[in-house]
Write a structure and sequence with these properties.
By secondary structure, the chain is mainly α. It is about 75% helix and about 0% strand. It is built from 4 helices and no strands.
Length: about 110
């Protein structure tokens, strides 16, 4: 039996390709930032449109109070929330992939010792 002193570059018991997992993690991070920026951009334009319509008198009603104006504006606070949820969800997926890769690598190193 001949033994080689070369170190094996890949562990044959690994069920994933390290490069593809890293690529997927980076794509998830990039996509999270793209989604967050699109939602925030959409929200900024919606708020600017509302302010323009409000100052031009489109939402003014006879006897309208300040609280009525806030009631009309309230849904604009909820517009960016799905984008923020998608952002944190995709960031969590990205970081979880990296954590699982680290766990697998540490487990493999511990098994060798």
């Amino acid at each position: 039996m001949s033994e080689s002193n070369e170190k094996q570059s890949t562990f044959l018991g690994t069920y994933f390709d390290r490069d593809s997992v890293m690529r997927l993690s980076r794509w998830a991070e990039t996509f999270a930032w793209v989604i967050l920026s699109l939602y925030l951009l959409y929200w900024v334009f919606s708020v600017l449109l509302f302010i323009g319509q409000y100052t031009s008198g489109l939402f003014f009603d006879k006897g309208m109070t300040f609280l009525s104006a806030i009631n009309i504006f309230a849904p604009y606070f909820l517009q960016p929330l799905p984008g923020i949820a998608y952002f944190f969800g995709l960031q969590t997926v990205s970081k979880a992939l990296l954590i699982l890769m680290d766990m697998e690598d540490n487990t493999r190193r511990a098994a060798r010792k």
